[in-house]
Amino acid sequence: MSAVRLRYFAWLRERVGESAETVETDAATVRDLVAELAGREERYALAFADLSAVRVAVDEELADLAAPLAGVREVAFFPPMTGG
Amino acid sequence: MAIRVQREDFDPGAEIAALTAGRTDVGAVVTFSGLVRDTGGLASLELEHYPGMAEKALAAIEAEAAARWSLQASLVIHRYGRLVPGERIMMVATAARHRQAAFEAAEFLMDYLKSRAPFWKKESGAEGSRWVAATEEDTAALDRWT
Questions:
Q1: N or C: at which end does chain A have fewer Cβ atoms within 10 angstroms?
Q2: Cross-chain Cβ contact B56/A7 below 8 Å
Q3: Per residue in A6-63, pLDDT tens?
Q4: Do residue B50 and residue A61 have CB atoms under 8 angstroms apart?
Q5: Do A79 and B134 touch (CB under 8 A)?
Q6: Looking at the domain assignment, is residue B122 inside a domain?
Q7: Largest CA-CA distance found in chain A, in angstroms, rounded
Q8: Is the minimum CB–CB distance between A76 and chain B shorter than 8 Å?
Q9: Which pTM value belongs to this model?
Q10: Which CATH number fits domain A2-78: 3.30.930.10, 3.40.980.10, 2.60.40.10, 3.10.20.30?
Q11: What is the DSSP-derived secondary structure letter of residue A27?
């Protein structure tokens, strides 16, 4: 098991009910981690119900759900970005 | 090349002046400012960002622009926090020897920061609040640069 810092933004933050947390996991990929969270509590299942609307960053770099978690410190989940 | 992510407002005129101060090699400056627009009943716009990643993403987009066009200088400022209609949200400025590079690089910066910089907008008005969804147009706008 390793500790990963999770961050949530915009409506994902609202659905999960926190902006950041640290979880212990041995999930191999971001997708596995999402499945683990969704199985843990209803609020995660709701937040991750439509993965096509979820974007991922791994250690502050855009990534996708297949990204491996080995050695990763921080994973962020958020909807498509709307800068500018 | 400079990036700033800040809560405070900024003065576009002063920023443009600073960008070219003391330089004699700049022949063209293009700037774009984005403002909070009231589309009907908008009370405020909350801009959320991912501190750390926002600066990195903007710097990466700016570096890409510098690699594609011959720029003498560039600047991206993006605000966060609660803004009301009429307030400035962000600006980009590009300085080059000739106008074509300055125009194109400014458009490139805008297209990329629309959908590649970690900012999110929540509109609040009389009917409650809602997150602004990314548009197909914003995503499609990147295609012309690839």
A1: N
A2: no
A3: 999 999 999 999 999 999 999 999 999 999 999 999 999 999 999 999 999 999 999 9
A4: no
A5: yes
A6: yes
A7: 39
A8: yes
A9: 0.95
A10: 3.10.20.30
A11: -
